[in-house]
Amino acid sequence: MERSQNTSPTMVVWDLGGVLAPSGSAPAALAEALDVPESQLAAPYWTHRDAYDLGASPETYWRLVADALGRPLDGAWVDRLDRIDTGYWATLASDAAALLARLTERGTPLGILSNAPGSLARAVRRAPWSTRFEALVFSSDLGLMKPDPLVYRAADERLGRAPSEVVFFDDRPENVAAAGAHGWRAHVWTGAEAAAAVLAREGVLDD
After folding, report:
1. Which H or E run includes 170?
2. Which CATH number belongs to the domain containing residue 108 in this structure?
3. I need a surface site. Which of 11, 105, 118, 197 has the fewest CB within 10 A?
4. Domain span at residue 155?
5. How many domains does the chain divide into?
6. Coil, strand or helix: which one is 2?
7. What is the pTM for the complete model shown?
8. pLDDT in tens, 98-120
């Protein structure tokens, strides 16, 4: 974990969906593509999501969703749905992007820790905005999901930081609680403006 003396020891680590990326838009777009009500899609979309986030293939996930809808899918449909899904979850919210830009200008190290499937992890790594992050850690890489305590221990190695050197934002209180128990300086995300105030209190941003 050796670092240059010019590098800040504190890293700000972010969840992706519902924090850096807007939540809720992907299911609506997918329902439109499938020509089904969003309310009908929601249950299978989320029911099978944990297994997908832990490393199941896109083919397995989307066919489980389609079977629940009574809509058999070929490979072209699987690819189309996966592109729609990752396109939404890999797009930064404008207010989050502005906050990240402020931190990047200050030279603050940034990281991501997200429950996310492999296809989304790949999409994020291809996205131009991801180059500002020192570390990108996804559940599909680890075979572990937040709020499992082992996730934060594994993330420490990939982030190259001691727990006390991590400031973390997540929109799920249970993930924040687990991160705090691990020793991270963890906060519930309620928006970019509130996060900026938290980062000022943490000594990462100026007031």
Report:
1. strand 166-170
2. 3.40.50.1000
3. 105
4. 11-21+92-201
5. 2
6. coil
7. 0.92
8. 999 999 999 999 999 999 999 99
